[in-house]
Amino acid sequence: MRTMARLGVLAGTVVLAGCTSAPTPTPEPSPTAVTPSAPTCSPEGIRITALEVEAAMGLRAMGVELVNCGTGPYALEGHPVPRLWNADRDPLTVQVIPGARSITSGFDQPPRPIELRPGERATAALLWRNLVTDSSVVASDGAYLEISPVAGRPAVPVDLDGPIDLGNTGQLGVSAWKQAD
């Protein structure tokens, strides 16, 4: 009886195997595809990462964290300088607003000098509205982001979990860096 049960299970397995399709080959990634990776320390001794996006009624806020992963102190004063590209890697025309007065209130604290020791962090926020205010202007999504810690410093690529969906406002507010707890 035990042999008959085993043959039944074997026959059922063979029948089910015949019902599945052949595996499809995995397509090769395109040369322009970027695979998210663990952030690395830049030659300047910093790492910038995007934090979670908070969204409510069209208003979006994304935290940004800068970590001093170098061996010495890192001086910082000002606002991050973001640059965005769409999914085709075409640059987006974006008006970067220090603070966010024309978008919302509460992000307009003035910059203060910060000196980060190795391992210390600073945070800032990017703020935008996903609005379509003019049907003749195409809405844009930022698929790729890089951030200069402040104007004049080298930019660091930042992995995104999803697009920065600007609608067609073309505005991106940035808060000043502040030392994280």
List the main descriptive attributes of the protein structure presented here.
single chain; 181 residues; mainly beta; six-stranded mixed beta sheet; three-stranded antiparallel beta sheet; globular; disordered N terminus
What do these coordinates show?
By secondary structure, the chain is mainly beta. Helix content is 10%, strand content 36%. It contains one helix and 13 strands. The strands form four sheets. Strands 1, 2, 5, 7, 12 and 13 form a six-stranded mixed sheet that branches. Residues 1-36 have low confidence and may be disordered.
Q: What count of helical segments does DSSP give?
A: 1
Largest sheet: 6 strands, mixed
Q: Which structural class best describes the helix and strand composition?
A: mainly beta
Indicate the proportion of strand residues. Answer: 35-45%
Shape: globular
What's the multimeric state?
single chain
* Residue-averaged pLDDT: 81
Helix-strand topology string: HEEEEEEEEEEEEE
Rg is: 24 Å
Number of strands: 13
Low-confidence stretches: 1-36
Cα distance, first to last residue? 69 Å
- Tell me roughly what share of residues is in helical segments: under 10%
